Amino acid sequence: MRKTAVYVLAGILMFFGGSLNVHGAQLGQQDTETAQSAEIAQEEAPPIVVVLDPGHGGENLGAEYEAYTEKYMTMTVAKSMKAELEKYEGITVYLTREGDKDMTLEERVDFAKSVNADFLFCLHFNMSVKHDLFGAEVWISAFDNEYQKGYTFASAEMDMLTELGLYSRGIKTKLNDEGSDYYGILRHATENDLPAALIEHCHLDQENDKEFYNSQEKLEKFGILDATAVARYYGLKSDILGVDYSSYQNVEIPVPASPVKPDDTKPDICIIDVKDVNEENGDVTVSLSAQDYDSYMLYYSYSYDGGLTFSDLQKWEEGEDTISFTMNVPSGTLPEIVVNAYNGFDKFTESNHIHLSSLIYGEPETEEAVEASNMNAGSSAGEEELGSIEAPEEQQDNNLKEKAPKEEKEITVIYFLQVILICIAILFVLFSFAMILISARSKKKRRRRK
Questions:
Q1: What is the pLDDT of residue 363?
Q2: What is the number of domains present in the chain?
Q3: Same domain, 240 and 297
Q4: Parallel, antiparallel, or unpaired: how do β-strands 348-350 and 48-54 relate?
Q5: Of the candidates 296, 292, 303, which has an alpha carbon nearest to the alpha carbon of residue 270?
Q6: Residue 448 lies in a domain
Q7: Does the model's pTM come out above 0.85?
Q8: Which residues does the UniProt record annotate as the domain MurNAc-LAA (predicted)?
Q9: Which of 115, 311, 378, 421 has its CA 20 to 30 A from that of 436?
C-alpha cells in the first residue's frame, strides 16, 4: 500500500510539473514573439520627413549688410543642418532648393507637401529698420495644431540659441489685416495642415550679434544647432554622434481654442527713480520698474537730455519687474532723465521725467590757473637758491601788480577810441541833418520867387 501511494503521488507531481513547464515555455515564446513584433514594427515605422527651406535665393537676396548676403548664409546653414540630421536614425531630410534659384513661398510649401513632410523649417537672418534690434526669435502659426507643434519645437530651438549666447526675442505670432498668419510661408503651410517654424537666427546689422555669424564655421554651427533642436523635438538617437534624445521632455503646450494674437499694446507700467548721483564723475544710478500684463519686457533705453537722444537698446533682465542701471551724464549738462521700456513686440512706454541739478566735474584749467601753475613751477625751480617758500608767492603778487596797470591802460585807450568814433558819428549825423534843412529852405525860396 505504501509503495502504491508513493507511485500515485509521484505521478501527480510529474503531471503538474509537466503542465507548468509547458505553460512557462508558452509564456516565454509569447514574450519573444512580442519583442520581435515590436522590433519589426519599429523597423517598419515610416521615417520622420522634414523639409529645410533656405530663405530667399536667385534675385531675392534677402538681407544685405556689409559683406553678408542672407540667401548665401541660409544655404550654408541648411546644408550643415541636413548633414547633421542625417546622422540620426529614422529621419529623412529634404531641401526646398539645392542651388541659388528663385522660389515662391507657395512652391516651397508645395514641395514639402509633395514629399509628405511632417514639418517645414524656414531658415533666415534678420535686420531691423532702425538697425537697433538684436537677438534671435522664432515665428510660428497662430492657429490650432500648427501653433501647438510650432511652439513646442520653437522652445527647443530657443533653448539652443540662448545656450549659444544669443539674446532671446521670444517665440512669436503675427497676423495680417485679414486675421491670417502674417508671414506667407507660415500662412501657406497652415492652409495645408503643415506645421512650420520660421527661425530668425540673429540680426546682421547689430554688433551684439555679429560674433555669432561672421564666419563659415559659425554659420555651419547654426546648422548643427538647428538639427539638434529637431532631434530633441522628435526624440531621435544617433549611434554616430553617441546621443539619444528619446527621453527628452518637450514643453507641454495645449492646442489653442482661438488664434493666438500678438500683443499690440504698449507696456502698462514704466516708472523711474534716481537712486544715486556721483557728482565727481557724472554717474547716475536709476531704478526702473516696468511691466506688460500681456507679454514680457525685452529692452530699455535711457536719455539724459529729456528724450532728444537715447542710448542704444539695453537687455532687460529676464523675469524682473524692477532693474537698476548706471548712466553717465556729461559735465556741464542740466540733466533731464527719461527711459523707454520695450515689450516683446517692440512697443515702448516712456517713463516719468526727473530733473537734476547741473553736473560740473573734471573742468579744464582756466588760463589764470595755468599761468599761476607755470609761475609756481618756475618759482619752485629756484626755491633752493632763495631758501624760502614765501618768495614765489611774493614774486607772483608782484607780477600780477605789474600787469594790472598795462591792462588798465589798454582798456583806457580802447575806451577813448570808442568815444572818438561815437563823437564823429554824432557830428556826421548832425552835419547831414543840417544839409537837409538848408536844402529844404532853398527850395521854398525858389517857389516863392516863381
A1: 62
A2: 2
A3: no
A4: unpaired
A5: 292
A6: no
A7: no
A8: 50-231
A9: 421
